[in-house]
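In response to reviewer comment 3 from the previous cycle, which asked for concrete evidence that the modeling workflow produces usable outputs, we include below a single protein chain processed end to end. The sequence was submitted unchanged, and the resulting structure tokens are shown without manual editing.
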Amino acid sequence: MSPERFEHLLTLVGRLIKKKTTNMRTPLSPVERLTITLRLLASGDKQQSLSLTYRHGRTTVCHTIRETCRACWQALKDVYLRPPNSSDNWKKIARGFYDHCEMSE
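The workflow returned the following structure tokens.
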């Protein structure tokens, strides 16, 4: 992923994944939260491996990934993942799917 795309994604989800600093802990930054999540999604590594790589607890990594994926869905669903809004659009998608299946046989 290019740095520009990463920054764009961070601007879309950063406010959703930012945590407050408290007297008890300093939270992971939005940059680190997004980096850990994208690394898991891109590499398929185990969360335990990411925990060791980034030097955070397994539970922290697990919660970070879950929360960041939800934030990505929330931020991107209406722009990039909206469902077709008419039966003609559904049929167009279906034709494309069937055309692709026939080509791969």
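The radius of gyration is 18 Å. We consider this sufficient to address the reviewer's concern, and the full set will be provided in the supplementary archive.
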